[in-house]
Design goal:
By secondary structure, the protein is mainly alpha-helical. The chain has 5 helices and 2 strands; from the N terminus they run H-H-H-H-H-E-E.
Length: about 110
């Protein structure tokens, strides 16, 4: 699931659709935090860099973040209802710890 979502996010990024790329990267962050969080950071830096100098740039930045925030909150709520809040928080722990992958339902290392 992670490679497919990441490929679509990269394709949207290349085509200039940062809102959609960021929303997909946010989903990737819940599937496998390592790549998802790093890629979200890259997209956020580009988004802020592109929009901060514009007139009304900060309003535009917030409007561009809205889809990703909505997807992240909605998916987190669904996953918390299905698996519990502990599993959602545990899935965001990364690098060096064994995590419970809430999407795949298996225990694995995320790095």
């Amino acid at each position: 699931l992670e490679p497919a979502l990441l490929a679509h996010a990269l394709a949207d990024h290349v085509q200039g659709r940062l809102r959609r790329a960021l929303a997909l990267a946010a989903i990737v962050a819940l599937v496998k935090p390592t790549m998802g969080i790093v890629y979200c950071g890259v997209l956020l830096l580009q988004l802020v860099g592109n929009r901060a100098r514009e007139v009304g740039g900060w309003k535009r930045i917030l409007s561009e973040l809205a889809p990703a925030a909505s997807v992240l909150v909605a998916l987190s709520a669904v996953l918390a209802a299905a698996f519990g809040t502990g599993a959602v928080f545990d899935s965001l722990e990364c690098c060096g710890s064994t995590q419970l992958s809430i999407v795949a339902g298996e225990s694995r290392r995320c790095c």
